[in-house]
């Protein structure tokens, strides 16, 4: 079975987010003043093969723990959906 | 009214994603072989003030068009939700 995982990796809330601060300043210069806070992280889309959605969850969690997220400084969350294979003619 | 916008900015599908390729290789080295494709973009969370959710949508779209996304090479999508102000004692 094919699955798609949509993963968000964000800096932990208690950490400073210099990138977010810089973008907030940039928006101000563009006279977009109503933005009170900006936080920036990664959005990662994985396409993977797995026997079940549970196995897909374990694979994605393992990938986040080992490579996709720096678990000391970042939090990650993800959603998984099955990819319907288009019917072959 | 306060709103939170969750924005995903991803490289256009037809473009090469060298970052994604590098992560895919990295996962292989970690024996996480079932991942067929990796695409990496930005996840941006904005907190903003607006008179209505429609106005919030316009502010976020404007921010994406002018700063948050490179509309030549990236696609963006976002979801907006109202932030319930916690009741003051």
From TrEMBL, chains A, B:
Q: What is an annotated GO biological process for this record, any one? A: 'de novo' IMP biosynthetic process
Query: GO terms for molecular function, please?
Result: ATP binding; phosphoribosylformylglycinamidine synthase activity
Catalytic activity reported: N(2)-formyl-N(1)-(5-phospho-beta-D-ribosyl)glycinamide + L-glutamine + ATP + H2O = 2-formamido-N(1)-(5-O-phospho-beta-D-ribosyl)acetamidine + L-glutamate + ADP + phosphate + H(+)
Compartments, record wording: Cytoplasm
Q: Indicate the principal place this protein occupies in or around the cell.
A: cytoplasm
**In its keyword annotation, does this UniProt entry include Nucleotide-binding?**
yes
InterPro entries recorded: PurS (IPR003850), PurS-like_sf (IPR036604)
Q: In which pathway does it act?
A: Purine metabolism; IMP biosynthesis via de novo pathway; 5-amino-1-(5-phospho-D-ribosyl)imidazole from N(2)-formyl-N(1)-(5-phospho-D-ribosyl)glycinamide: step 1/2
Q: Does the keyword Kinase apply?
A: no
Gene3D superfamilies named in the record: Phosphoribosylformylglycinamidine synthase subunit PurS (3.30.1280.10)
User: What top-level class of enzyme does the UniProt entry assign?
Assistant: ligase
Keywords, alphabetical: ATP-binding, Cytoplasm, Ligase, Nucleotide-binding, Purine biosynthesis
The EC designation for this entry is 6.3.5.3
GO annotations of cellular component type = cytoplasm
Relate the protein's function as given in its record.
Part of the phosphoribosylformylglycinamidine synthase complex involved in the purines biosynthetic pathway. Catalyzes the ATP-dependent conversion of formylglycinamide ribonucleotide (FGAR) and glutamine to yield formylglycinamidine ribonucleotide (FGAM) and glutamate. The FGAM synthase complex is composed of three subunits. PurQ produces an ammonia molecule by converting glutamine to glutamate. PurL transfers the ammonia molecule to FGAR to form FGAM in an ATP-dependent manner.
Subunit structure comment from the entry: Part of the FGAM synthase complex composed of 1 PurL, 1 PurQ and 2 PurS subunits.
Membership in a protein family: Belongs to the PurS family.
Q: Which HAMAP family match?
A: PurS
Instruction: Write down what this protein is called.
Output: Phosphoribosylformylglycinamidine synthase subunit PurS
User: Origin organism of this chain?
Assistant: Thermonema lapsum
């Amino acid at each position: 079975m094919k699955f798609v995982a949509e993963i968000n990796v964000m800096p932990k809330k208690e950490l400073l987010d210099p990138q977010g601060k810089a973008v907030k300043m940039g928006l101000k210069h563009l006279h977009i003043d109503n933005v009170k806070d900006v936080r920036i992280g990664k959005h990662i889309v994985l396409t993977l093969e797995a026997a079940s959605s549970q196995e897909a969850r374990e694979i994605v969690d393992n990938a986040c723990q080992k490579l996709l997220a720096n678990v000391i400084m970042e939090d990650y969350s993800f959603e998984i959906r099955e990819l319907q294979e288009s019917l072959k003619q």
